[in-house]
Amino acid sequence: MKCPYCGGVDNKVIDSRMTKEGNTIRRRRECLGCDRRFTTYERVEQLPLVLIKKDGRREAFARAKVLAGIQKACEKRNISINTLEQFVDELERELQEMGEKEIPSSVVGERIMTKLHELDDVAYVRFASVYREFKDINDFMSELKELFSSRTRSPQQ
Prior knowledge:
The protein is α+β, with helices and mostly antiparallel strands. It has helices at 63-73, 81-97, 105-119, 121-131, 137-153; strands at residues 11-18, 24-31, 37-43, 50-52, 58-60, 102-104. 45% of the residues lie in helices and 20% in strands.
């Protein structure tokens, strides 16, 4: 494993832990060249998921792209990066468990929306505004009304 700081390839593992789900191992490493520490993750290699976009194009599922979108929606919210990584881990596992090689991007988007709705209302609305391509304030208000009505039907906290 190459050190992200100095590029050296000699390092040692100083700690290994399995995630709660048991599908990933987190390793803390120390570079023997520069003595800096970094974290790596080890996962079982899965069959690549292919998303079918709205326009019919096919694109490989990009975990980093999904995480970046969720991070943007959760910006300035009190949500840890560990929570967001777990969020994406669960999403990716659910998609793999579907057993399909190709999945419509709308399925992924709706699953993200559902999970964000449970996690944080503000992040949910932010993501929805981009995902559902709100054209004006009426689209935004409509989504907020739906959010409020769903909260009054089934309070979560």
